[in-house]
Design a protein that fits this description.
The structure holds two protein chains of two kinds.
Chain A lengths: L9 H13 L10 H10 L10 E2 L7 E8 L2 H8 L10 H15 L11 E12 L4 E6 L3 E4 L6 E13 L2 E11 L1 H5 L2 E2 L3 E8 L3 H7 E5 L9 E8 L2 E4 L7 E5 L7
Antiparallel strand pairs in A: 1-2, 2-3, 3-4, 3-6, 5-6, 6-7, 7-10, 8-9, 9-13, 11-12, 11-13
Chain B lengths: L1 E7 L17 E12 L11 E3 L22 E8 L10 E4 L7 H9 L1 H6 L5 E14 L7 E9 L4 H4 L5 E7 L5 H6 L4 H6 L1 E6 L2 E13 L2 H7 L35 H12 L4 H11 L25 H21 L2 H13 L12 H4 L5 H18 L7 H8 L5 H20 L5 H5 L1 H25 L1 H6 L20 H21 L3 H4 L4 H8 L8 H13 L7
Parallel strand pairs in B: 2-4, 3-4, 6-10
Antiparallel strand pairs in B: 1-2, 4-5, 6-7, 7-8, 9-10
Helix pairs in contact in B: 9-12, 9-14, 9-16, 12-14, 13-16, 14-16, 16-18
Classes of the chains: A alpha+beta, B alpha/beta.
Chain lengths: ~250, ~550
């Protein structure tokens, strides 16, 4: 009933869903784990965690939220990130405008005279295809849905832009281009394993992009940070790593 | 829309020299010419067609009487294949017995034409099912198995199929009961297999056809389901006639030596024709046939007993070959110190997002679940690429590799990469076009590399006299070099230990001929039949077992 199997019995389905929303723990002993996970994503209307911020959803990204909101003062003074419209630099404003055009189909925005920005550590949304919630955090890699090629982006920051009566989610990250990916197969591991290299630190600032939530694919990527060592390489610290190894293939397990 | 396979008649084949010559009423079934035709465009049908599956079948007893063609029937007994290079080579003519019958053909044969015509009524609901059959124990410390039989709805999406709630238990056969008796109790499913009229809503009658399209399970159960001897028998493959000694041969011709439904049924008839049990047993042993008829025929009479019992890649790949790879790595590739270092590295190594870590391999490898083997197989190529160095490899094995290649480390890593690739192709939710086209070479390449590794390991064991001396006498089956017992040697002990190492080397040589090694040859065929081999995996059924094992403690069990 919770998954919507008995649409003919609308009244009782509604009652059961209301009970579930009020007291999800009641069902934890009745439902298997797989069912609980999918229902958590699709049915819970409000999250008790005060740290969470809900944002504008779309067909492929249900119930999107961000968690681990970063304090405004810390953003402004330590991370040097803008939190109000008046703090926006020209380049950031331009990138944001382009992102609104590309991902939310809102072209020709010249300036953001009002509004605020909330920076966070994690984002999550419900993926209707896999019936699972997908979570990404700063430092993770996401796959961006593009017209021709899906591109890989490393998340540097996660932000919600509260503007024009809506809260929209963006990811600020560094893009690894398709041209680079196609030529980066690991010589020993062969097909299915690619070496990724972030742009140099000087170029990182220039290659930073803003990606809107609608373009984020619900795909978790297995990417390991590496560093050169002699003829081979070794595992590196994820925060400082410039090079990564991506295993494209995956399989089913119980 | 109908998919029609073309039949070539004598006028089409005048340029060919066919032996024995074509009969005047004989046609050749084309393996290359298929047509999609709208139902309305069909003018008329050939009423009488006889498919002769016994023609030129060398496995069948020629003295046994077989059905013959009725008068005036079009006879099909051979297949016409233009091959991959029709411009350079003449067509290949193959006896029909080397082909699997169509599902519809078997249904028509079993239920008759009247049954087919019932489907013309306005509303028909088709509910294809995968039926999982497997024995399992409810308790960890009580070895009493139950026979679980569950329905899985085959038409659901991958995600929906994997939900425990969508696996429907049909029956649990009690411990000690005969499997045939359990199936007998399910005879009421037979009408559902053919189709029954039911009233789902008041006044609305529909023809409900809930049929098993395939039985899934692990290898021993599937052997039983298809009426064959166990996989350890001399002729213990239910898809072909390969002998136990040749199972390591990855170039074996599974087409010419394959088993086919009609042939299997005819061979069983031949066996039943023997007057004494001794002769029947002898015949059964020779061809790997179980003397008891497969009981599932009682509830699914129209199924192909060969193709509808697919192999389970989860068992053969995860619990079979991946486990061997892990054992090889720990016991024979890495030095004892490197094995400890490997275990420590694995403990902190990043896994794919959302994947739990696996137990420490040094002490818990034997209790790994299917899923732990699966997860390990994905992580290990990257771990080895980042960590493995020549100093970690046992010197004798390293030397053997050096004789063959400049970079032994890379060669070992590539063996594990091949394992991961093969596992992903066979057990992945998604398969790329290129992988699908190369499925045969991907799976075989892995086996070839593993066989080479096993051979090198066996050679290194016999060459390593120091290892032989330091081995434990008390652990003959699967001795681990990680625990070494230094004891004062006597001549008797030395001799015993040398024998033990020889036995270990022989064990690795024998692993090259495991049934799991051979089963790879049949995955491409199953991929053709079921779209992806992963569609026939049993993980969801095993998950249901896990549920029963958990909830048993909430019952008034004794």
């Amino acid at each position: 009933m919770l998954a919507g199997s008995f649409i003919d019995d609308a009244a009782i389905t509604r009652v059961v869903k209301e009970i579930y929303n009020s007291c999800p723990m009641l069902f934890s002993t009745l439902l298997p784990r797989s069912e609980q996970l999918s229902l958590e994503g699709s049915l819970i209307l409000e999250n008790d965690d005060d740290d969470d911020e809900s944002v504008q959803a779309d067909r492929q990204h249900g119930q999107p939220t961000v968690t681990g909101c970063i304090q405004t003062k810390h953003c402004r003074e330590v991370l040097k990130l803008p939190t109000r419209a008046s703090h926006l630099s020209a380049s950031f404003s331009s990138s944001l405008s382009k992102a609104y055009d590309k991902y939310y189909h809102m072209p020709n925005i010249i300036a953001f005279s009002q509004g605020s920005i909330q920076w966070s550590k994690k984002l999550s949304f419900f993926d209707p295809d896999s019936q699972r919630r997908q979570t990404f955090k700063m430092g993770d890699f996401i796959m961006e849905r593009d017209r021709g090629n899906n591109e890989i982006v490393r998340i540097c920051h996660i932000l919600i832009h509260n503007w024009a009566g809506a809260r929209r989610l963006f990811v600020k990250g560094v893009r690894i281009t398709a041209e680079y990916l196609s030529a980066s197969e690991d010589s020993v591991l062969g097909s299915g394993y690619r070496r990724l290299r972030l742009p140099d630190s000087a170029a990182t600032h220039e290659s930073a992009v803003l990606i809107g939530l609608p373009a984020i694919l619900p795909r978790q990527l297995y990417i390991v940070p590496i560093a050169a060592k002699g003829e081979g390489f070794e595992i590196a610290n994820v925060e400082n790593a410039q090079e990564f190894l991506w295993a494209e293939r995956t399989l089913q397990w119980l | 829309m109908l998919e029609i396979q073309e039949v070539l008649l004598p006028p089409d084949l005048q340029s060919l020299d066919i032996q024995p010559p074509l009969l005047s009423n004989e046609g050749l079934l084309s393996w290359n010419k298929y047509h999609m035709v709208a139902e309305d465009n069909i003018d008329r049908q050939i009423e009488l067609v006889f498919l002769d599956y016994s023609f030129n079948d060398k496995k069948l007893d020629t003295t046994h009487l077989r059905p013959t063609a009725p008068t005036g029937a079009l006879i099909i007994r051979r297949i016409h294949d233009i091959g991959s290079s029709p411009e350079h080579f003449p067509p290949i003519i193959t006896p029909l017995c080397y082909s699997h019958p169509l599902r519809g053909e078997l249904e028509l044969e079993t239920f008759g034409r009247a049954h087919l015509e019932r489907f013309s009524q306005p509303k028909t609901i088709s509910l294809p099912l995968m039926t999982f059959i497997d024995g399992f124990g409810l308790y960890r410390n009580t070895y009493r198995t139950l026979m679980g039989m569950y329905f899985i709805f085959a038409a659901l999406s991958f995600q929906e199929c994997a939900r425990r709630a969508n696996v429907v238990p049909i029956t649990l056969g009690p411990h000690g009961s005969n499997f045939a008796d359990v199936v007998d109790a399910l005879k009421s499913l037979r009408p559902l297999d053919a189709g029954v009229e039911v009233e789902l809503r008041p006044g609305e009658s529909v023809l409900l056809c809930a049929f098993t399209m395939a039985y899934i399970g692990d290898m021993p159960q599937q052997q039983k389901n298809s009426g064959m001897k166990t996989q350890r028998a001399n002729c213990g493959c239910r898809f072909c006639f390969i002998g136990a000694d040749n199972r390591g041969d990855l170039g074996y011709d599974t087409f010419e030596n394959g088993r086919y439904h009609k042939q299997a049924v005819a061979m069983r008839d031949d066996m039943e024709g023997f007057k004494t049990k001794v002769l029947r047993d002898k015949y059964a042993t020779k061809w790997g046939i179980d003397t008891e008829e497969p009981c599932l025929v009682k509830i699914s009479p129209a199924l192909d007993i060969i193709l509808s019992r697919p192999s389970d890649p989860a068992h053969s790949e995860y619990n079979g070959l991946t486990r061997i790879m892990h054992n090889l790595l720990l016991d024979t590739i890495l030095t004892p110190a490197a094995a400890k270092s490997y275990a420590a590295t694995l403990r902190s190594f990043p896994f794919p997002p959302g994947w739990p870590h696996i137990q420490g391999p040094l002490h818990h490898l034997k209790s790994y679940s299917l899923s732990e083997h699966a997860r390990w197989s994905i992580v290990i190529p990257i771990l080895l690429r980042c960590w493995l160095q020549e100093k970690h490899i046992r010197p004798h094995l390293l030397q053997i590799f050096r004789n063959e290649t400049k970079n032994p480390v890379h060669q070992i890593i590539q063996c594990f990469v091949a394992a991961a690739t093969s596992n992903c192709v066979l057990m992945g939710n998604i398969i790329s076009k290129a992988d699908r086209e190369n499925i045969e070479s991907i799976v075989s390449d892995y086996r070839v590399k593993l066989q080479r590794l096993l051979q090198h390991v066996a050679n290194s064991l016999t060459a390593d006299s120091r290892r032989a001396r330091s081995h434990s006498v008390s652990r003959p089956a699967s001795p681990s070099p990680l625990v070494q017992y230094e004891t004062p040697e006597t001549a008797e002990q030395r001799s015993a230990v040398t024998k033990e190492v020889a036995a270990l080397a022989q064990m690795y040589i024998n692993s090259m001929k495991l049934p799991n090694m051979h089963t790879a040859l049949h995955y491409p065929m199953l991929a053709d039949e079921y779209a992806m081999p992963a569609n026939c995996n049993v993980l969801v059924g095993e998950d249901k077992h896990r549920y029963f094992k958990k909830v048993i403690y909430t019952t008034n069990h004794l």
